[in-house]
Amino acid sequence: MTVELGHFALVLALALSIIQAVLPVLGARRNDDRMMAVAVPASFTVFALIALSFAALTSAHVLSDFSVQNVFENSHSQKPMLYKFTGVWGNHEGSMLLWVLILSFFTALVAYFGNNLPPALKANVLGVQAWIGSAFLLFIVGTSNPFARLNPAPVEGRDLNPILQDIGLAIHPPMLYLGYVGFSVCFSFAVAALIDGRIDAAWARWVRPWTLTAWIFLTGGIAMGSYWAYYELGWGGWWFWDPVENASFMPWLAGTALLHSALVMEKRSALKIWTILLAILTFSLSLLGTFLVRSGVLTSVHTFATDPGRGLFILAILVLFIGGSLALFAWRAQTLAPGGLFQPISREGALVFNNLFLTTAAATVLIGTLYPLLLESLTGEKISVGAPFFNLTFGPLMIPLLAAVPFGPLLAWKRGDILAVAQRLMTAFFLALLVVALVLYKTSASGVLAAFGIGLAAWLMLGAVTDIWLKAGLGKASARATFQRIIGLPRSVFGTAFAHFGLGVTLLGIVATTTFATESVLVMKPGDGIRAGGYTLRFDRVDAVKGSNYTEDQGRFTIMNDEGQPVTDLLSAKRFFPVRKMQTTEAGIKTFMFSQLYVSLGDAAKDGGIVVRIWWKPLVTLIWLGGMVMMIGGCMSLLDRRLRIGAPNRAKRKPQPARTVA
């Protein structure tokens, strides 16, 4: 009965979403307050219905109700309880239900926090959100019903894909979806502005918190996905330029550009039309990522669906929203008032420079991702565009952008003095050069590129520190006065500095682990040892271990220091899931400060040994630590007292006492 209730709630949510998509928009056109007022209660009700539907599917998974096809194909009675919960979205149907749940949640948030929005704008935004929700609810009900029954009900399920039976699945997809779907609000504001034909600084103030929220979650989702692939797949890498990885990276690049563009628009009423276009393109890239994952055009550990019918349905959604919004932009953009003017050397100019390189980088990744697919569809020829292409195109675009990052926050609005800013950054520049010299001294000529990469990372971090140092007036006043000035700085100042510092931390991790990592592949027998990263790794034995729904051959290693004293143990395993008849690699990882020793077991050798792959990855954890610092920076900016959902209400004029006429 619970399953049928969930299905009914989903159908009812679809019907109500269609009503929400039509009535408020018509009301805004007719200036009918009653029709526009439908949007708010409809948003809350749709969210409640989809939440009820999601809870019903979760209940079926937790209770191992194998009469539900989705549960039968993706669960097992012996599966750990945690993975029964996470398995709800570890498949196509469940993940799409999570997608629309998050979409309806964001719509309800707009309805709740948007009390100070103009009624017409609020109605149009909620209406556009409902258009998106209706399309995907129709897709789920029509092609991806998560509540389909099996008769007779099987006794046991087929289990979840073993690769997805990991704590990373509990964090990575929800965070990624919060980022993807969060940009739908920016898209809806952009389309609503085009419908209404008006856009101003208040519009940018309403959009910025939603953009920032989506960016924070997407940053976390990408970082968590990178770490999940790093430790779960046993490949030893943190980024592979996989097309589905690119699908999440492209909206992040566009969203970062949108975040900076909206700031220019709010502060200086400039870049209005460009900001509208960026809001459309960012969510369009999110939709493209949804299509790539669920259309069956890609084969990846990230993909769920392989049904061409579903792919055509999503392609139709893609054409409808991307094509429709761009057509609306082409028709209405000329009616929007142009933005203000500014000098090229200014903070606005620096942010335009930022936008230029970020959008070009996103276009480069887009071309490298889609070109093989287009070529195969047109000619049948299969080609592979991998890391060499992206490294040679994306990397050079990032170097000038990263070099310019410390200048932006120190430039004045409208007209800046580049020489004065360069003087303020001189200390940071010389310290970065000192870092380059030290790396060259340690690595000789073989590490030239690494030295400049690490120097660039130091430049970013030192530039962020310089920004706070100068704005707080450190060293120019008493400790008490300095402290008062620090706590008086807007949180967005700290947010910007943290985000830029985190970018430098990530870059440092990328350069160090890419350049200085070592890899060894050898056959080891019990008692054999090998040097790695200043330690000796000794292979002890292999134990057979039985888990709740798997068996594994667990390799035991001892890590010893230079004196031959044991430092710690390390476990690495080959795990077999009998239900799915799949084998996975459980990498053994030990962290030493910011570096890691990474061990992956291979196949057994004929002489009784076992193939072992060993990596020493210096500073690799900085890659994900930098992502966390960037998220902290985003959260600090989001808490800025000047950044509120919407714009402040205008003060109402006090009523004047009535005057009597003699």
UniProtKB/TrEMBL annotation:
Residues 89-295 form the Cytochrome c assembly protein domain. It is found in: Cell inner membrane. Keywords: Cell inner membrane, Cell membrane, Cytochrome c-type biogenesis, Lyase, Membrane, Transmembrane, Transmembrane helix. The keyword Lipid biosynthesis does not apply. The keyword GTP-binding does not apply. Residues 315-641 form the Cytochrome c-type biogenesis protein CcmF C-terminal domain. Pfam families: CcmF_C (PF16327), Cytochrom_C_asm (PF01578). It is a multi-pass membrane protein. One of its GO terms (cellular component) is plasma membrane. Belongs to the CcmF/CycK/Ccl1/NrfE/CcsA family. This is Heme lyase NrfEFG subunit NrfE. It comes from Phyllobacterium endophyticum.
